[in-house]
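Appendix B, example 12.
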Amino acid sequence: MTHFETDVLIIGCGISGATAALRLAKDPHLRITIVTPEEDPRESNTYYAQGGIIYRGDDDSPELLIGDIERAGAGLSNPVAVRILAEEGPDLVRNLLVDKLGVPFDNEPGHGMERIKEAAHSTKRIIHVGDYTGRAIQEKLVEALRSCPNITLLPKTTAVDLLTTSHHSRNRLAVYEPLCCVGAYLFEQTTGRVRACLARKTLLATGGLGRIFLYSTNPPAARGDGLAMAYNAGARIINAEFVQFHPTAFYYRDQARFLVSEAVRGAGAKLVNDRGEPFMHKYAPEWLDLAPRDVVARSIHQEMLTTGSPCVYLDLKSYLSADKITAHFPAIYQKCLEFGVDITRDWIPVVPAAHYHCGGVWVDEYGRSTVRNLYAVGEVSCTGVHGANRLGSASLLEGLVWGARAAEDAQRTLDQDCCAYVDIPPWYDEGLTLTADPALIQQDMANIQHIMWNYVGLVRSARRLDRAISDLRNLQVDITRFYGSTKLSDSLIGLRNAVQVALIISQAAWENKVSQGCHYRED
């Protein structure tokens, strides 16, 4: 069969996509299909979120949280979206994650859930599960998904393109109709077959794009697939230049290996240079080591240039006992040991790395994009909550809130706002004999990553961005030719998407001449 039908197609399985699916599954008559390119549906950006999720502090209020988000966002946060997050988010955390799913958040004896303070937060409001909060949440979400009979999980399935009436209908007069999404072409990795999934509603929850940069905290699939597909379908993209670099990724042999949560600095660790000297007082005297992420990342970058060192260090051992370190940061402790670093005795070598995309597919307060019946939630979207820079631990909460809101709207409008299924042709790849050469794909991806890191990284300028756009356009021509003459593979689809997303970000960075948040122009 060249196609199949579902009521709601969800592309991605992290906190936003899974939350939406669970909300929709309450209606037993709805058919929900979730696709993920991974073999294990737990594998997602959510799984790798270490620090925690915003809840509510003892002396907290929506107004206090709104102020923190807007300060971190450099004044560019969408006030409507920020208020929704601040007012609805904590109750959703309690009702879904704590009460319904039973996520085992850490407790403080006699005080209930332990709440900690992170960078740029004005009070203790972050709840966590050790230093693997995202993993704990994702495991509970997937467990719940598997228990719903009307949810179909399709692993090892990569979305190729979104289907729209204007782009794909056999009826050429459909080009005059407003843009309307009716599903997606899906590539089955195990069979090599592409099938059209026709859906009344389609929800993008594909996560981020950090892997288009040389150093990143993101998992391998975070290459911007959803953003590229939405762009190609005609959706509006905004704030694409705002790529947040996490200040502290573990550094080993010229590579960023994994994220070292800012909760480590929240627990008292200090950033020091290769001489053991604290340096944040020189760059951010107001916040010191708990400054917003973009400030910390650029401070580290400058200190590395000043000292000529390939990295800086986190000194945790001087401020926390060994027992507390292993109790609070067991995953980080074990990961560092794998690379010969005992964080109860040694400094932790760190460098900045691409971490989170604050821009994305423009959506409204219900996750609706500018393409009819296409929603975007989580990191692939831009609700405007994060503005020019994301407040720590706000991403999981945003995914939770907009996953729930998108599901609510999709269910409410399923029958009244639905494009009739159109005659979509089957995927055509007859005559293609070339198999995707992994060496070519890896080299092209490496070229993209180096261009983005060197020219569109922490510090940007017109000259660097001109070079990036020129090089990426030339590379896109070669990749497009390669893509059009080669049998599909997941990595080939990812390569096509990566170069498109790299161009989107580079162009947006070139157009924005003002330094704002995590977009910094030295000129």
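The chain is about 35% helix and 20% strand. The chain has a mean pLDDT of 94.
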